Amino acid sequence: MANCMVFHTQIASIMEVLANAAVADICKLVDDDYAVFRLEMTQSQKENRALRRKLQLLELKVARERVLASRPSSVKILDRHRGMARGEGHLTGGHRSFVKPARHNTWRDDQPNTVDEGSGTSTQHVIVIESVDAEDAGPGVKLERSEGEDPGQSTDIQTGAAGVLPVATEDPTTTTPPRTRRSFTEVSGTPNAVLKSDTETLTVAHRGSDNRSDAERLGSLGCPPAPSSEDLPVFHQSLKTVNSCGNTDGDTLDTGGDDPSCFYATEMDPGNISVGLETQTDLSRGDWNRYSSSVYSEGCLDKKGEVIAVDKVTVKVEGDTPLTWNADETHLGEGHSQDFLDYRDSLETNPNVSSHSPLHTLRDCAPVSTSKGPYDSRSRVLFDQVLNSNDRARAQAQGGGATSGNSKEKRFLCMFCNKGFSCLQKVEIHQRVHTGVKPFSCTQCDMRFAEAGSLKRHQRVHTGEKPYSCPQCHMRFTQAGSLKRHLKVHVGERLFA
DNA sequence: CTGGGGACGGGGCCC
DNA sequence: GGGGCCCCGTCCCCA
């Protein structure tokens, strides 16, 4: 009996030893595999980074070659603070002025529309590619780019001689700077970036990193917070105007009324995008290779809507150079990055959509907004919209869409989806679908609209005006379509079977 | 079924 | 006459 017990004990101990050994072996195997796996992952990541850098350099190189091939080096590339050609306001000496269009109903004569320089922050900073003479093209490319989240660091990409100020002056007399210069905007995660130039300093703060509220930021700049400023970064184009929240003579449009029900502002959906699209070179050919990227911003708007400050910085990019894009530095998850890569591919496979589309900028800008406002919540939607619209564009191109059929009448093509429009303004309005630019803002609420008519229609919500009344009942409606739809109730038509 | 916004085409006016 | 600008109407969609 005792021997039996000893035997069992020995067996148990042996089994325990064996089990421990097996576990140890398994653990060792797992550890080894994990180490190998991590090593492979690290190597893959390194390769990815190297390939991206290579791609970046190639893009730069191609850009430089295109520039050199397309025009003499003395051509002015950068024209910041460009005034708007349309009747939507223009810049005068770095200040944004608004001129009421002659028949612009959204600006009522009795409205004290005050346009003032805003103040605040923005998530944007300017990347300048300075393309110097031919001898600089090639391996001598100097890439200066903030890789990290270094506050206050300006992120300029400069090629050629260092020390050149990254932002062109707005001095109209210096129309032909000695160097070819490219400037475009990008939103990055840089918490604070200060752009300096001969004439101005752009204080750019990253919303997501700024713990202060917008009201605090605005307040610190002497500007009351805008009702919608919570969602909107504010971009200052000039130091001269940073603290000029009060009215300035040149920028004030005071029509003397007391109904600031609406105003016209050039703003954009900050959560989506930071550029607006304005021009194209050869509209008849749908050639959008040269375009302007306008950095819209919002200034101050007090609660009463009496003081509206709008600021705008226009960064004009001319020439054929594609915007550089660094996937490494988009502050995105991998999924987003992949989406953008896919879209980039789709863009570039679309022969009618310029590869220099501001969507390259958009790709950088849209997903990095950290604001929490309603517009921000739509950023992803808008991006998907752009993606889808591009697919639609291809479908149109293949299936005899607007671009192939009546190209004579609809010769203005959307640079995002290729849809054709009869005139430039139509396509500009349409492109707001893609860019998220909503220049028309209601002063009585935070609503923004891409079209003036929509704002006007919206105003009836506040005024209570219901001009459309049913002749068969007492129902009244704010929209004609609503009345028309309602009339079907009386005639027995049902919307749904 | 209504309220309200997005999008777009048509048409008038002006240059 | 053509093009640009602007307004309006309409359809569609969603809440």
UniProtKB/TrEMBL annotation:
One Gene Ontology MF term: zinc ion binding
Entry GO CC: nucleus
Keyword Protease: no
Stretches the record annotates as Disordered: 135-225
Keyword Transcription part of the UniProt annotation: no
GO biological process: regulation of gene expression
SMART domains in alphabetical order: ZnF_C2H2
Chain intervals with Basic and acidic residues compositional bias: 207-217
Protein name, UniProt field: C2H2-type domain-containing protein
